Structures are given as C-alpha cells and as structure tokens.
C-alpha cells in the first residue's frame, strides 16, 4: 500500500476492532515526554485514548507548550497520534466532575505529575479508584512516589546524571556527557506501559485494579544493567570509554576511506573471523590477544592496529566483508540517511499520516509487530479539545450542559 493511501486512511477513525487493545479506554493526564511515550504504545495498538489537555490560556497569553513544543511541533505530533482530546480545567469543581465521569468507564489512567500535585488536585489513585475500583492507574515521577526526593521536579537530564549514565558516556577525561536522546523519559514510558499491561492481566483474575508506577530514576538505573551490576557485584567502577565497549574488545567506530563504520568482534567466534577478513590472521594467533581479557588489557594498541587497516578501504567494502563472514558491522548514519536505508524502508518505520492543517507527514512507527496486523497510524495528533463534544455526548451530556461547560471555561 502506498504512503498516499496509508495517509488517506489515517485521517480520522480512531477505532479498529482488529487491534489487540481495541475496547480498552485510557485517560491520558500526561505531559512532557515520559508519560506520553507510555500512552503512545496503548494508543498505537487500538486503545481509545482520551487526552486531557489544559484549558486555553487567556486572550493575549502565549500558547501553552512544554519541552516537546506546541501542538503543531514535530515532537508533539509524534508523541500524541492516535488519540482524542478534550480540554478540562481540573482546578475547577466542574472540570474535576467531568474527569470523574470519564474515569467511571475507563480501564486505565496514566499521569506523570509530582506526587504532591496530583494529591492537591484530587486525582491520585486513592481519589479515582473510589469511583472505579477496576481502574489501573499508572504513574511516572522523577524520583519515585516515596522517599526524600518524591516531590522534586524531575527531568531526563537529571536522571542521566544521578544514575551514572553521564559518567560512562563520552570520551575518557572529557567530563560527564549526556546521551543524544531522552533515554530516561523513554525508558520510564516503555517500562510503565509494560507495568500497565501486567496490571490489566492481573485484573482479569482479581476483578480489581491497581496503582502501578515507576520513575525516571528507577527505570534508567534499571537500564544501566551490566554497568550497575559491575559495581554492585564486583565493586568494579565503570568509566568512560568513548565509542568502545566497556568490556567487549574490539568494539568501536573506525574511520574508513570514505566515512565511518561501527564494528564489533568481541568473542572467541568472531575474533578470528575479523582477523582473517582484515588480512591479519596472525592477530588471531597472538596469545596475549586470544582472550577478551587480554584484548581489554591491550585495548589502545589493538584499536590503533585495527584503525590502520580499516582506513585503507571504503565503508561499503568493510560492511560487506565483515557481514559476509559473520562479524557485526554497520554504517554510521545521520538522521537523513537513516530513513534512506533499504532495511528501514522495508520495515516501514516512517509511518504516513494526514493532518488537517499540516498535511501529509511521516512519524516514527511503532517498533512492535503483531503478525497479520498493520501498524499504520489511524489518526494524527488531535488539536486541543477537538473531540470534546463527541466525548461529552458519549457520557450522556446534553447540548445545553456542554454549552454551559464551554461558557464557564471548564472545557
């Protein structure tokens, strides 16, 4: 199916009964990136997600935007596709009443407020579960729902520093370095989505919902994985090693005749194959380089020797040569080249959608695959409050009551 056809199909209908989460109703109270990245998984795979957007600012005030930009920004569009939207002023009694009506028929609520904020607004799990005991309530915070830092504002940047990620990223001696993406936000969103699905599965057995939560701190520390385990188990303090792997040698980025490659041959199976492919079979016979521990000890020397050889041939030559003998190797792309790659094209990771104002655009497709199901985008990011009438009518609100809510600034 062509991009044009796919985009034309992705213009309005939010329901698709063939998708695995069809029939699941989700109330989205999230902001920024961590929470929305969780909800996006649910929306992409069929859940009816109702996004609670903030009320319009007073006339003359600047348009609301957060770290992901305003509602027409590429980032915002990518995060909030496949949803419906209603504006609600949750600081007003009327807005809170509408939210409670929505919650009575919902399966899931997702939020990423600081603990004290949701408690002050009266939208914490304890508040909402009273009107719907089957509710699965998912939370992301900066530092956890309890402890001395519970009410601190948290951002990805801070989590990257506190989890040690910055201490192992970048070149040796160059000082702490953040990663180029919001990996803490994305990790928390992915983990909470998994947490929510577990709670929904549990609900099938118990008939009751549950509060599930993670934080940027917890999720990113979990993602530190073997680096954290090196310290916990062996008291081995990880350090920066640039583009190399901290324990698997050789691994790195190497300059070719016309660009760069990323290559890794860290085990006893790949190491001799790499040596032969590079025309250096004698390296494989070198006793001091025969183990990963030995190669770690000779990291600098070995890297220099590999670099000398790699520079003599083109990027394509090395990618073809190494992969033909089972040694992992790939190109180093800029973002424009990523989506030109034939494998990325086959996987259809640039998903078309037609926006009523912005026209046809491509967003990043879901990485999940269900055999036999399409992962096309069903609908672009809605404008704030665009679906309010439909959502309120589904609750049984009369046209008069809807008009009153609008007149009083509730929605």
Automatic annotation (TrEMBL):
Gene3D superfamilies according to UniProt: Crotonobetainyl-coa:carnitine coa-transferase, domain 1, formyl-coa transferase, domain 3
Q: Which InterPro entries does the record associate with it?
A: CoA-transferase_III_domain, CoA-Trfase_fam_III, CoA-Trfase_III_dom3_sf, CoA-Trfase_III_dom_1_sf
Protein name in UniProt: CoA transferase
- In residue numbers, the region (Disordered) covers 54-77
Keywords noted in UniProt: Transferase
Q: Name one GO molecular function term.
A: CoA-transferase activity
- Organism, scientific name: Trinickia symbiotica
